[in-house]
């Protein structure tokens, strides 16, 4: 499973980012995991925390649920969740943690650096003569890559 951060709009220099492992990722200027160069972006503007990715076996009947993703504002100019162009949107308070859902948008700073968070499941198909359960070591490897 992977989380994609896709730029919304046509901001120059904006690139798409993929998060495929659990951990905390920093958003900000140089030396951050997700680097943004707009002037309203703080040195460490925000943190994105991704919980452990969970494998799902379709035969088990369990629903596919993406890992929990949250954003924490650490900035001067703010971080906004689901901001609609032309409106103030929902600005996070400094150090406030907000859980994100598939399809949410996050705007960093007071400019146009907006990204859509999208959950992308990785589907692996194995075919063989025997109808056997997936080997535990193979399942561990697949879980480690998302």
Automatic annotation (TrEMBL):
Main localization category: nucleus
Highest taxon above the source species: Eukaryota
Gene3D superfamilies: 2.60.200.20
Keywords: Cell cycle, Chromosome, DNA damage, DNA repair, Nucleus
Annotated GO CC locations: chromosome; Mre11 complex
Location of this chain's protein in the cell: Chromosome; Nucleus
Domain FHA: from-to ranges: 25-86
GO biological process, one term: mitotic G2 DNA damage checkpoint signaling
Record-linked SMART domains: FHA
Entry GO MF terms: damaged DNA binding
PROSITE patterns in the cross-refs: FHA_DOMAIN (PS50006)
Pfam families: FHA (PF00498)
Protein family (similarity comment): Belongs to the Nibrin family.
PANTHER family: NIBRIN (PTHR12162:SF0), NIBRIN-RELATED (PTHR12162)
Protein's UniProt name: FHA domain-containing protein
Lineage start: Eukaryota, Viridiplantae, Streptophyta, Embryophyta, Tracheophyta
